[in-house]
């Protein structure tokens, strides 16, 4: 029996197993769900063993656990492949916006509906099933394989850097493939060449000890809300270019080749504006909307707090004003250097009469850029073209995945995103779903990938 026939024969069982997996509410952000994340880890370890992997083990970190396993019998002349994914999920609230309970998955219209179905339980189960099909039909794998699945991706993988560093020998590999990833559409594959980094900070401006009567004190002391507004307005020029001195110094420019590659991918600006509800595009001059989204750094205010927020009027002079800011960074910007540049800018441009603090918040990621000619990416592109019948788009994403840079920093290997979700599947939102045909297609893709990597 071929592995393809095995996958077809066992597909109903595989879908039932995915439903069982989704029923575990492994929400890493909520303390009440800590036992559920542990239970999901144990489910993954057992499933790896059933697929034929060796040494499946739930391993502790300072927070949520990881699961490691391997199969290393292909021989020293064959490459070693590390497969990454995550079994934790986002919170599902508000529950009343779901068409069916998020942890009671349902199959409707050829889709599995439930929290984590697409991100990333369906995705990370795919390579396990491909490995099982190869093991059950051939008795072995064409390459050496290691598995590395985590339970804290949805909270930024805070404990992975020390874990990966401490277990570098166990995780060492020639190539890394992430089962957490997207395809462009059900009929069009893609490979992601770059992810943005992240730095998060908060600006706090203070004046009086407490809110004061604006009639008695207005004009006598500074207003922190207005001082903060002045500071924020100085972070960007009116045309959208970031005004912080040195902010762009480390940015690797978009080459003509990269810009041409981005331009080849269809983009309907009118549809984008309709989707977002914005009246017009806006951003750094000299770049297309997609170039700004994918390949240029950003600085955005995420939240503002000051003074009276309730209905009606309360004539106060606020004692304090706060702004939360994040920057999405591109290669080769450093989150720490960008934070210091912004802090210095704020300190230099704060009006008199107030004090200011600039605090770096938790949550940081280095930008990630796959080098031109990357071998594993080239092989993945060949496999995707075989499976989909069309070459993959080469794209970039504005989001951040901290583990990618952790694996690169410690293991020295650029990971390839080889996942089969789609960005319309309500990831992180109510009514998350995963297409069953993508679930099946991904199994074929991983089996072919392992076979291709095992060729002389």
Describe the protein.
There is one protein chain. The chain is an alpha+beta fold and 456 residues long. The protein has helices spanning 3-22, 34-51, 117-138, 160-166, 168-171, 214-217, 224-233, 256-263, 269-276, 289-295, 335-349, 375-388, 402-411, 436-453; strands at residues 54-59, 66-71, 80-86, 106-108, 111-113, 144-150, 175-178, 190-195, 197-206, 212-213, 298-306, 316-317, 320-329, 355-360, 368-369, 393-397, 415-417, 433-435. Helix 2 (34-51) runs parallel beside helix 3 and helix 12 (375-388) packs across helix 14. It is globular and about 85 Å long. The mean pLDDT is 96.
CATH class identity of the largest domain:
Alpha Beta
The multimeric state of the shown protein is single chain
Specify the overall morphology.
globular
What is the number of helical segments per DSSP (H or I, 4+ residues)?
A: 14
Number of strands: 18
Distance between the termini: 24 Å
- The chain-level mean pLDDT equals 96
Instruction: Report the uncertain regions.
Output: none
Domains, number: 2
Beta-strand proportion: 15-25%
**What's the architecture of the largest domain in CATH terms?**
3-Layer(aba) Sandwich
From the alpha-carbon coordinates, what is the Rg to the nearest angstrom?
Answer: 24 Å
Strand order within the widest sheet?
Answer: 1-2-6-3-7-17
The major sheet is characterized as: 6 strands, mixed
CATH superfamily of the largest domain: Zn peptidases
